[in-house]
Structure formats: structure tokens, C-alpha cells
């Protein structure tokens, strides 16, 4: 098997065999025509002639007799044969049921018998016995039978016209939606389709009301039903008029010109532009649609190049999408990027959202919503619960951090922890901004944007979902792309200057082009506050590319934004329900620590009494007695080296990690996981509760 595959790759004998048998002769073009593929002019079929000595040339000639004008024209199908086939079946059934057998010796003047309309329209070549049957049935049919047959035919024709009209209306709506989906989302395209209305008379209202009571249907359903019937009826009448006009025009048309020779001969020369296009080599490999300008139905899909046009490439897509069922499409080559499928992971998929109590606690603490110190519960922030609709003021900073932590959790296979090579904000930058009390998350104007500083590719990518124009036709133009919110751009430039001063980046990275939107076409809906949702969708796209799935692997930003709303709605409810449980767990744990402290203090007092009696007798004290005397008499406090191992692990993490990303780090002085002083005070108070030993006043709650 492997030998056959390698042989085909070298000689391409599979396609050569198809060409030899008269296949792959014509190739469809962008304008809908067919082009004859000559082995002397087309690069892909060079050395692959049509036919062979083993195939009859007469058969090959008949095989391609339907092709005319060098492949630019084919015979129109005879649609009347569909109805004629029904009449022919009725004729044979009549012969069988009536038991009629034509007498071959009977002399009948068939030339004088008028042929029915369906025979002439369908261009049927009936054999002699069927012509005898037809003539006998027509001669013996009564006038009532003929009238009944005509009524049935008329009824059938009217039904066919209605069906054709319905198909035409459905096709127009589908075509309108398909064209809109190239530049808009499915929701926006469906909103623009407004069904035509009709005048509702009092009689129709009464009839609709009567039927609604009788059948139990609502008025709205009946109105839609009658509206659809009225549209189909009007379209059927229009089709009937058009059909009669076409038949009249065809009857008055001059005789057809003599047919052109079949394409076995050399086809006519194509124009210079198409000739140049055919000479362009087709690039190998797999290409992916990475620009949102291509539309939601094509974004992120990939395939191989089949043909090269002046500004567009014909791509054969790997998979069929629900919004775009066609696999062969023309796309501007600027929207494509070649990818190495062998070096990329297969597919970015979002796992089922399920959080354990451990992970919920970790997310709440990492986001700065709650703390591990039971004595500091007043600083806890309430969880913003996301409802079915977007919040009026947009997403808060807390929810954006929730989304970022959830993205990390899902990306790492439902495990929490920082991602290698990617962070939400540089710790040094956060420290500078906190010290200067600058707001860095919800930038001026209450609008979320995303700036990605990519040190590996030496580039800065900026995302802004705010519209640069209220005119829908201007969205995606260069002027609209460059027109960004001035306050957001200024804030981004300030952040870059802070990063430079903190030595997070070098000056060479800022010498590139000015900030420009990466999202060229995607914008948040008008009068909406979904900027935070779009920022999270851009984060997911960057994350999927960073993890090796390639560009545009996460999906279209518009669909991701609405998906993020569902995720945040589910996640925020789970976290909000977890907060009272966390509070109860902390209080129970704190009560246990206090009880342990009381027991330890009682033991210390007992050792102190024993120490006093031994000291009077000048006897040697044990270690526990000496410790009790130091704590109770000398007021010796707990020292750092006496703290448990967990404190030293937490301190080492703070030193290595620096400032965190939680809301406490942004707006306050830090939390236990990123402020060394607060971490030390927390562990001192915890050890004091557990052992009953005294601590310095600076570590007590409420002390600076």
C-alpha cells in the first residue's frame, strides 16, 4: 500500500487515469462557467492526454458532446420532462388496468394525430407501441374525461408554481443571509430580514379569530401562516407570467446558430488576464483564515489552495461549517496565513465548566475577593453575579480577573497556576502603578481594551471593540480602524512608558509602528457594555495561539464574547454561593485554633507553676518550663524563626513572584499572597492563636 502511495505521488497516475477515461476535462471558474483543460496549456494536467488507444474516439466524442463554446456553454436541461414522465407513467398504467393491447396489424395514421403538449414540450421520442396506445386513448376519451384531466393538470401546475415560488423565496432569503454572513454575525444578518406585510381585511381578521378558537391556535401564528401563503401566491403568479413571457419570446426567436465543434479540438484562447492567472503557481501547504474581515462563517477555517485569482485565492476547506456549507470558496489572500499543521495541536476545545470547592477557593483568593485571614473579613469584596443580560456598567475588574483565572484553569487541563511565558500584568509595572495610585484596568471612559506585549515576536498588539463610526458601512475601513478611543490609546501609551521605566521592555520595542487595532472588523453591538466580554475573547485567542494551536484557533471574537457571558454567568453564581461556605469554614478553623491556644496556654501555666517550685529548690528547669517562664514572666514574643514551615514557603513565593493581579494589589496595599509584611503579620497572629504565646504589638490586628 505504501509503495502505491509513493508511486502515485511521483507519477500522479490516478489523475492521469481519470483524464484517459474522459474525466476531469472541464474545470469550473469563478464566474460559473466551465473551462476546457488542455494538457498543453494547463500546468496541472501536463502530460495527461484525454483518451487512449483502448477507448473508442466515437465514444469519447459523444462523452463530451454536451459541451459547447469551449466549455462556456452547456445545453439547458429539459425541465418539462419531469411532468412528461408522470403523463407517460399514467399512459402505461391505463394500458395495464384497461387490458388494452394494440393490434400491430391495425392501420393507424399516426402523423395525422395531434401530439399532446407534454410529448412536444419534453421532446419525447416514443416507440411505436406507445404511440399506438396514446392515439387509441385520446380517440376513445370522452369530453367529460378530457375536461376532468385538464382540471387535474391545471391543479397540478398551480401546485408546482406555488412550490417553485416557495423555493424561490426561501432561496432568496438564504442567499441574503449567506451574503450578509460574509461581513456580519448571524444575529445581525437575521435582524435585517424584514418579512413583507399584507393588508389585513376585517373578513380575514374574523376568519383568523374563528379558526384560532376552533383549532386552538393563536392569532400570531395564523397571521404568520396567512402572510406566508399570500407571499407564495403572489410569487406563483409572478412566475406564471414570467413563464408565459419566456415561452412567447422563445417562439418568436430566430433559428439557432449551427453548433460549435466539440472541445476535442483546440479551445478558443482566453483573455490575457485569465491566461496570466492560470500561469501563477498554486502555493502548497495548508492556509488558515486569520482575519476577521473574512466574516464569522470563514474565520478560523483552513484548507488548501486550488486556484489563484487576481486578488483572491480559491480554498478547498477541510470541514463544512453550519453557517457556510460550501467547502470551495474564494477568499482574499490577505486574509490567509500559511500554517504548519504538523507543528500545531489539533483543535482548541473548551472543556465542560466544573469547579471543585478547592478551585473555587483558589480563584476567590487569587482574585482578592476574599482572604485567608478570618480577622480581616471586612475587606472582602462581594462577588459580582452576572445575570442573563450584560450589566449596565459593563464588567468590573473583579470579573475580568475571574475570567482570566478561569481561562488559565481550563487551558492547563483544569489546574490552577500561572502560564509559562504569559502573564496578565508585569509585577514591576503593577508596583509602580499602585504606588502612584493610577487606575490601570478600567481605563478612562469606563471601557475595557487589551494590549499584548509580545517579547518573543517583538510586537505590540492592541484590541479595542469600540466602534470608530456609527455608520455600519464604514466598519472595517482603514479610517475607522485607525479611529480609536483617544483616552484608551493615551492610557495604553502611559502603560508602555511605565513598562519602559520599570525595565519590563526595552526601547527598541517601542520604535515600531503606532498602535493599530488587531480586530479589524469585529465590534461590540451598538449601545452595549460588552467591551469586557470581547477583551476576554481576545485573551482566549491569544492564549490558544500561545499554547500551540495556531492563530484564529479559538474562534470568532463575536461568538466567543457571547460564550464568555454564559461562562461568567455560571461561574459567578458558583463563586457567590461559595463565599458564605468559605466564611463558615474559616470561622470553624479559627475556633479550633483558639481552642488549641487555650489548651496550650493552660499547659504553659502548669509548667510555669512547676518551674516556680523547682526554682525555689534550685533544681534544673526543663525546656518547657524555661519556655513558660520566658513567655509569662519575661514577656518574650514569637520570633520569625519560630514560625511554621508554611510561612517560609509563602514568603519565598512572594519574593519570587512579586506583586499579584488581584484587586487588593491594584487599589490597596496588597494581600497576603503578594505583601510580605501582611503575610508575616497573618502568620504571627495565627501562631499566637495556636500556641497562646505573645506577639509584638505591630503584628496585632489593626496595627500599622
Question: What secondary-structure arrangement, pairings included, does this model have?
Answer:
Layout: H1 2-11, H2 13-20, E1 26-28, E2 34-36, H3 57-63, E3 67-68, E4 73-74, H4 80-98, H5 117-122, H6 128-140, H7 143-181, H8 186-191, H9 202-215, H10 219-252, H11 272-279, E5 286-289, E6 302-308, E7 312-317, E8 328-332, E9 336-339, H12 357-366, H13 397-411, H14 427-435, E10 450-454, E11 459-463, H15 478-482, H16 486-501, H17 531-546, H18 557-616, H19 623-632, H20 645-657, H21 663-667, H22 676-691
Antiparallel strand pairs: 1-2, 3-4, 5-6, 5-9, 6-7, 7-8, 10-11
Helix pairs in contact: 7-10, 12-18, 13-17, 17-18, 18-19, 18-22, 20-22
Strand order of the largest sheet: 8-7-6-5-9
Question: Can you count the helices?
Answer: 22
Give the DSSP E fraction (strand runs of 2 or more residues).
5-15%
Sheet of most strands: 5 strands, antiparallel
How far the N terminus sits from the C terminus, by CA atoms, comes to 79 Å
Average the pLDDT over all residues and give the rounded result: 77
Bulk shape: elongated
From the alpha carbons, calculate the radius of gyration and give it in angstroms.
40 Å
List the uncertain runs.
Answer: 255-278, 438-445
Give me the secondary-structure category: alpha+beta
Helical amount among residues, as a percent range?
A: 40-55%
Number of strands: 11
Amino acid at each position: 500500500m505504501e509503495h502505491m502511495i509513493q508511486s502515485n505521488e511521483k507519477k500522479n497516475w490516478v489523475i492521469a487515469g481519470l483524464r484517459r477515461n474522459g474525466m476531469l476535462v472541464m474545470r469550473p471558474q469563478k464566474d460559473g462557467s466551465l473551462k476546457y483543460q488542455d494538457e498543453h496549456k494547463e500546468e496541472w494536467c501536463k502530460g495527461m492526454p484525454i483518451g487512449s488507444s483502448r477507448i473508442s474516439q466515437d465514444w469519447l466524442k459523444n462523452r463530451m458532446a454536451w459541451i459547447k463554446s469551449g466549455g462556456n456553454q452547456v445545453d439547458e436541461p429539459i425541465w418539462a420532462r419531469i411532468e412528461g414522465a408522470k403523463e407517460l407513467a399514467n399512459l402505461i398504467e391505463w394500458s395495464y388496468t384497461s387490458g388494452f393491447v394494440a393490434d400491430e396489424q391495425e392501420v393507424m395514421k399516426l402523423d395525422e394525430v395531434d401530439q399532446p403538449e407534454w410529448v412536444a414540450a419534453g421532446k419525447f421520442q416514443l416507440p411505436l407501441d406507445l404511440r399506438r396506445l396514446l392515439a387509441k386513448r385520446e380517440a376513445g376519451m370522452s369530453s367529460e374525461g378530457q375536461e376532468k384531466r385538464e382540471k387535474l393538470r391545471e391543479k397540478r401546475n398551480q401546485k408546482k408554481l406555488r412550490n417553485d415560488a416557495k423555493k424561490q423565496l426561501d432561496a432568496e432569503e438564504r442567499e441574503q443571509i449567506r451574503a450578509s454572513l460574509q461581513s456580519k454575525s448571524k444575529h445581525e444578518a437575521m435582524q435585517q430580514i424584514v418579512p413583507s406585510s399584507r393588508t389585513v381585511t376585517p373578513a380575514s381578521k374574523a376568519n383568523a379569530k374563528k379558526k384560532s378558537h376552533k383549532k386552538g391556535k393563536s392569532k400570531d401564528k395564523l397571521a404568520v401562516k396567512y402572510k406566508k401563503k399570500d407571499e407564495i401566491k403572489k410569487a406563483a403568479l409572478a412566475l406564471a407570467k414570467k413563464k408565459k413571457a419566456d415561452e412567447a419570446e422563445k417562439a418568436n426567436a430566430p433559428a439557432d446558430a449551427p453548433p460549435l465543434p466539440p472541445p476535442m479540438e483546440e479551445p478558443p484562447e482566453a483573455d490575457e488576464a485569465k491566461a496570466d492567472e492560470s500561469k501563477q503557481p498554486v502555493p502548497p501547504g495548508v492556509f488558515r483564515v486569520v482575519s476577521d474581515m473574512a466574516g464569522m462563517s470563514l474565520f478560523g477555517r483552513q484548507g488548501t489552495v486550488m486556484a489563484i485569482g487576481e486578488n483572491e485565492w480559491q480554498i478547498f476547506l477541510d470541514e463544512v461549517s453550519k453557517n457556510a456549507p460550501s467547502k470551495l470558496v474564494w477568499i482574499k489572500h490577505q486574509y490567509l496565513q500559511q500554517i504548519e499543521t504538523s507543528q500545531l495541536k489539533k483543535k482548541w476545545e473548551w472543556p465542560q465548566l466544573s469547579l471543585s470547592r478547592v478551585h473555587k477557593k483558589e480563584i476567590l483568593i487569587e482574585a482578592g475577593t476574599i482572604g485567608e485571614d478570618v480577622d480581616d473579613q471586612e475587606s472582602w469584596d462581594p462577588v459580582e453575579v452576572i445575570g442573563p443580560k450584560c450589566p449596565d456598567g459593563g464588567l468590573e475588574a473583579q470579573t475580568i480577573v475571574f475570567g482570566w483565572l478561569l481561562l488559565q484553569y481550563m487551558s492547563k487541563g483544569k489546574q490552577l497556576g500561572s502560564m509559562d511565558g504569559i502573564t496578565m500584568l508585569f509585577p514591576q509595572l503593577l508596583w509602580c502603578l499602585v504606588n502612584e495610585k493610577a487606575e490601570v484596568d478600567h481605563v478612562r471612559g469606563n471601557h475595557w481594551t487589551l494590549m499584548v506585549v509580545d517579547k518573543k515576536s517583538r510586537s505590540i498588539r492592541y484590541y479595542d471593540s469600540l466602534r470608530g463610526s456609527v455608520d455600519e458601512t464604514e466598519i472595517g475601513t482603514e479610517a475607522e480602524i485607525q479611529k480609536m478611543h483617544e483616552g484608551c490609546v493615551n492610557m495604553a501609551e502611559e502603560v508602555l512608558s511605565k513598562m519602559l521605566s520599570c525595565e519590563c521592555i526595552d526601547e527598541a520595542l517601542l520604535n515600531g509602528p503606532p498602535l493599530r487595532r488587531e480586530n479589524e472588523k469585529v465590534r461590540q453591538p451598538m449601545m452595549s457594555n460588552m467591551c469586557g466580554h470581547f477583551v476576554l475573547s481576545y485573551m482566549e485567542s491569544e492564549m490558544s495561539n500561545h499554547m500551540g494551536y495556531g492563530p484564529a484557533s479559538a474562534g470568532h471574537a463575536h461568538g466567543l464574547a457571547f460564550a464568555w457571558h454564559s461562562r461568567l454567568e455560571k461561574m459567578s453564581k458558583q463563586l457567590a454561593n461559595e463565599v458564605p461556605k468559605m466564611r463558615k469554614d474559616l470561622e470553624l478553623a479559627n475556633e479550633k485554633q483558639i481552642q488549641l491556644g487555650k489548651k496550650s496556654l493552660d499547659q504553659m501555666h502548669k509548667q510555669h507553676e512547676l518551674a516556680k517550685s523547682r526554682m525555689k529548690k534550685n533544681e534544673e528547669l526543663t525546656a518547657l518550663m524555661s519556655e513558660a517562664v520566658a513567655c509569662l514572666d519575661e514577656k518574650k514574643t514569637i520570633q520569625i524563626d519560630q514560625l511554621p514551615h508554611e510561612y517560609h514557603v509563602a514568603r519565598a513565593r512572594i519574593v519570587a513572584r512579586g506583586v499579584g493581579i488581584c484587586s487588593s494589589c491594584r487599589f490597596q496595599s496588597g494581600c497576603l499572597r503578594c505583601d510580605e509584611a501582611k503575610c508575616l503579620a497573618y502568620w504571627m497572629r495565627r501562631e499566637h492563636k495556636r500556641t497562646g504565646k505573645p506577639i509584638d504589638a505591630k503584628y496585632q490586628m489593626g496595627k500599622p
